[in-house]
Design goal:
Blueprint: H1 2-8, E1 12-14, H2 23-38, E2 46-49, H3 51-60, H4 67-82, E3 85-86, E4 92-93, E5 95-101, E6 111-115, H5 121-128, H6 133-152, H7 156-170, H8 180-198, H9 206-220, H10 224-233, E7 241-247, E8 258-265, E9 272-280, H11 284-289, E10 295-296, H12 299-303, H13 305-322, E11 326-333, E12 336-344, H14 349-361, H15 367-373, H16 376-383, E13 386-387, E14 397-398, E15 400-403, E16 406-412, H17 415-423, E17 428-432, H18 440-445, E18 448-451, H19 459-467, E19 470-473, E20 479-481, E21 486-489, E22 492-495, E23 499-503, E24 508-511, E25 516-517, H20 520-526, H21 537-552, E26 556-560, H22 564-572, E27 578-582, H23 592-600, H24 604-628, E28 633-637, H25 650-662, H26 668-680, H27 692-697, H28 701-718, E29 724-729, H29 735-753, E30 761-766, H30 769-773, H31 775-779, E31 784-787, H32 789-797, H33 804-807, H34 809-814, H35 831-845, E32 850-853, H36 861-870, E33 874-877, H37 882-895
The structure holds phosphoenolpyruvate (PEP) and magnesium ion (MG).
Length: 902
């Protein structure tokens, strides 16, 4: 039975058998060729060998059973349809053998053209082409070259060298000057090269050529560059490529032939129009090789009006059919147009929004689909400031856009210098060959980071993204010389102190300071651009799609903010409350000393004095925030600092005391402080006395904060405002911790609030795995949960959140242990599972329990979808990510097939 199944398994599809939805099986190219064939468009006939055949071949090193027979049958059908036979001496059918995976991997895999040519059929091809010997021999030499290089690993340079020699002998630089005799001679030379490297003659059997070419395309899936590209683009390694066997059509048969590429709209801006390039008397590979300059597609109207009109008609038809921007490749053979490829085209972030909006206007898609077509990463890109480029600025190098943004600054080569200059208020760009954890301080100080080595997962890239800092990595035209404090690029030398500008979105590097302009999209969110009254297609499209997302989403979006200014900005960006106000941020600067006194106090009166001083300051902090968030909920988290952030550094203190003692000074006070700091010193402050633990250990600390919150809310109400405070207890692991804090807090609240009408909720963060696992118990004492996924990730994985990303995550990413840092995007299987358990058990114990998330993941697009799935009520994120979260929360509804709206 199993054997029978293998024999019957279908590995080859005629173009008329496939369709655009079969990309997994037929690859993108094959699926779309099939789609165009079925639309009745002029596609050269052919067939596709499936990715499953490739997978089977790569697993065993052999073509699967049945494949050879199926290829034979499809080839015969093709020959019948064309009225020609592969390699027929009189009138040969020639085919191209092209790779085509599910995801586009441009130029990474192999193609062999003109399969079917040999010493006899070359004559037949010439006859077919109207006794065009030059064309026939040129086609033959191209076959030997491509076949030799791709299938038999003959070094490509040898062929190129022979071609150069032929041109030299003729005294020309142009291929087109070689005549039929020259090319015949070149074929002989190529055959000798082939023999020398392979120990065999160039195969004359067309079917053998075909089989070997198919094999080579299968194998090119695992070529080094393809493997690297997949890793970079996170394309799974086991998909395999399909192979398309397509009847050859020739764009190089004379001036009435040619080849081109086109987009149905501008992929840069989304504007409607005709965008493309055309090259007369050429094949596609000539365009790629840049042998001659292409002309704008509009020129084709003059050269061949009927093909041009037909092409425009087809492009309109494709757009209507795919309901999207398409890019195409075509060839004209003696006035006859052929479509060689189409696919939904890549586009910039701006074009994605504009096109989605246009397609809605044109009635091709609805707003749900428009929402599906854009994403939060694109929106985030549109919110970065951009370079204002004019012709004056040309890039001197291009690397990988590793972390978006636009940054200009003084070049420095060491972390120390970056820190020094930044401290003087200068904007600096840290330039390194590659970075390592020792560069961390410099990276923090720098405005941007530029490296000459390393990809999207290099240390520089990962760390910069984590910090939200602009980074261009792997700009390999740049020669960095750190000891000499300079780099060279394009024949220029840039010394420390010179200014460069880097674009972390495009990867481009400019000399000098390129002016930066604020994003229009941010201006729109800020309320300074009115979408109804400006002629800006992008802003109007963003407005329209955001409005739809807001109408769709079930998740509310709050913000993490600890100042009135941040709260106000987030509100303009659409935040519907504060999900996390980190009160420890309110104790920095001048107030640090008060907190230090409080923590180190040994006597009650010392402690109370510090608390009394802090109370009015805190009350004022909260009043400001409640005012900005009038009418909206504000979650205030009780203080949660890792202790070491508020204590003087132990080593420094010990040295100071020792030096003072040496000098015979009176150090009694310093010694007492040193003893206290020693007493409180922790090896792992992130796992130490922080959060609720600190509140339970230092009497009066949480009570002071609760009082300040309640008093601020009452004062807000008295002034006619509406404050909705939600007090949140951090780092709870056991319900008893929460119950203890709650009992004290309730008393204070009752006393302060009285009959003012103010309502104060008390809830907890879920950020310790134990809390997630005992959520049912904890919910008994909590009116809400907010998931602290930063700590939950730290403690779920056992990764120190302050250290690991810069230290070794690049290696984990390289090894594919995870595809993205779990601190950046929620680890659904592990940490996400803890969230799910806590949500379910919490709600089971307390129906209606309010659930939110306030870790960094609250603004990460994929994580927002996960939180939607789990059924949380809101996500909370930094002000700048609020629009991204709104958009993704809407997309989550559309993508889960729901018509949820709020
Ligand atoms: C968290 O742990 O996810 C959280 C929001 O708290 P913090 O980052 O302040 O520890
Ligand atoms: Mg935390």
């Amino acid at each position: 039975m199993a054997a029978q199944e293998t024999v019957d398994h279908k590995y080859v599809y005629d173009f008329s058998e496939g369709n655009k939805d079969l990309k997994e099986l037929l690859g993108g190219k094959g699926a779309n060729l099939a789609e165009m064939t079925n639309l009745g468009l002029p596609v050269p006939p052919g067939f596709t060998i499936t990715t499953e055949a490739c997978q089977a071949y790569l697993a065993t090193g052999q073509e699967p059973d049945g494949l050879a027979g199926q290829i034979e049958a499809h080839l015969e059908a093709l020959e019948r349809a064309m009225g020609k036979r592969l390699g027929d001496p009189q009138d040969p059918l020639l085919v191209s053998v092209r790779s085509g995976a599910k995801f586009s991997m441009p130029g990474m895999m192999e193609t062999v053209l003109n399969v079917g040519l040999n010493d006899q059929s070359v004559v037949g091809l010439s006859a077919q082409a109207g006794q065009n010997d030059r064309f026939a021999w040129d086609s033959y030499r191209r076959l030997i070259q491509m076949f030799g290089k791709t299938v038999c690993e003959v070094p490509g340079e040898e062929f190129e060298h022979a071609l150069d020699e032929a041109k030299n002998a003729k005294g020309t630089h142009n291929d087109l000057d070689l005549d039929a005799d020259d090319l015949r001679g070149l074929v002989d030379a190529y055959k000798k090269i082939f023999l020398k490297h392979t120990g065999r003659e160039f195969p004359q059997q067309p079917r053998e050529q075909l089989d070997l070419a198919i094999r080579a395309v299968f194998e090119s899936w695992n070529a080094e560059r393809a493997v690297l590209y997949r890793r970079q683009e996170r394309i799974p390694a086991d998909l395999g490529t399909a192979v398309n066997v397509v009847t050859m059509v020739f764009g190089n048969l004379g001036p009435d032939s040619g080849t081109g590429v086109a987009f149905t709209r501008d992929p840069g801006s989304g504007a409607q129009g005709i965008y493309g390039d055309y090259l007369a008397n050429a094949q596609g590979e000539d365009v790629v090789a840049g042998i001659r300059n292409t002309v704008p597609l509009q020129e084709l109207e003059r050269l061949d009006k009927s093909s041009y009109d037909e092409l425009l008609g087809i492009m309109a038809r494709l757009e209507e059919h795919y309901k999207d921007l398409c890019d195409i490749e075509f060839t004209i053979e003696r006035g006859k147009l052929w479509m060689l490829q189409t696919r939904v085209g890549k586009r910039t972030a701006a074009a994605a929004f504009v096109i989605a909006g246009q397609l809605v206007d044109e009635g091709l898609i609805d707003l749900d689909e428009a929402l599906h077509r854009v994403n939060g990463a694109q929106l985030a890109q549109l919110m970065f400031p951009r370079f204002q480029l004019d012709h004056e600025f040309q890039p001197v190098a291009k690397g990988i856009g590793a972390s978006p943004g636009a940054a200009s600054g003084t070049v420095v080569f060491t972390s120390a210098r970056a820190v020094e200059l930044a401290a003087e208020g200068e904007s600096v760009i840290l330039v390194r060959r590659e970075t390592n954890p020792d560069d961390l301080n410099g990276m923090i100080a720098a405005q941007g980071i530029l490296t000459s080595r390393g990809g999207k997962t290099s240390h520089a890239a990962v760390v910069a993204r984590g910090m939200g800092k602009t980074c261009v990595s792997g700009a390999d035209e740049i020669e960095v010389n750190v000891p000499a404090k300079r780099f060279t690029v394009a024949g220029r030398t840039v010394n420390e102190g010179d200014v460069v500008s880097i674009d972390g979105t495009t990867g481009k590097v400019y000399l000098g300071e390129v002016p930066v302009m604020p994003s229009e999209v941010v201006q729109y969110f800020e309320g300074s651009l009115d979408p109804e009254h400006i002629d800006n297609a992008l802003v109007r499209a963003v407005h329209r799609i955001m409005t739809h997302a807001d109408g769709k989403r079930r998740l509310a979006v709050r913000t993490n903010a600890d100042t009135g200014a941040d709260a106000a900005r987030a509100r303009r960006f659409g935040a519907e409350g504060i999900g996390l106000c980190r009160t420890e941020h309110m104790f920095l600067g001048d107030r640090r000393e008060l907190v230090e006194r409080l923590i180190l106090a040994r006597a009650a009166d010392e402690r109370e004095a510090a608390l009394d001083a802090l109370l009015p300051l805190q009350r004022a902090d909260f009043e400001e925030i409640f005012r900005e968030m009038d009418g909206l909920p504000v979650t205030v988290r009780l203080i949660d600092p890792p202790l070491h952030e508020f204590l003087p550094p132990l080593e420094q203190l010990a040295v100071n005391v020792a030096v003072a003692q040496e000098r015979g000074e009176d150090v009694a006070k310093e010694e007492a402080l040193l003893a206290a700091v020693r007493r409180m010193h922790e090896e792992n402050p992130m796992l130490g006395l922080r959060g609720v633990r600190l509140g339970l250990v230092i009497p009066g600390l949480f009570a002071m904060q609760v009082r300040a919150i309640a008093e601020a809310a009452v004062s807000c109400a008295r002034n006619g405002g509406v404050a909705k405070p939600e007090i949140m207890v951090p780092l709870v692991g056991a319900v008893q911790e929460l119950e203890t804090v709650r009992a004290e807090a309730e008393k204070i609240i009752a006393e302060v609030v009285g009959d003012s009408g103010v309502e104060v909720l008390i809830g907890t963060m879920i950020e310790v795995p134990r809390a997630a696992l005992t959520a049912g118990q904890i919910a008994e004492a909590a009116e809400f949960f907010s998931f602290g996924t930063n700590d939950l990730t730290q403690m779920g994985w056992g990764f120190s959140r302050d250290d690991v990303e810069g230290a070794f995550f690049w290696r984990y990413l390289e090894l594919g242990i995870f595809g993205i840092s779990p601190f950046e995007s929620i680890d659904r299987d592990g940490v996400g599972r803890l969230v799910r358990i806590a949500a379910e058990e919490g709600r089971a114990a307390r129906p209606g329990l309010k659930l939110g998330i306030c870790g960094e993941h609250g603004g990460d697009p994929d994580s927002v979808h996960f939180f939607h799935e789990v059924g949380l009520d809101y996500v909370s994120c930094s002000p700048f990510r609020v629009p991204v979260a709104r958009l993704e929360a809407g997309r989550a509804v559309v993508e889960s097939g729901g018509s949820d709206s709020r």
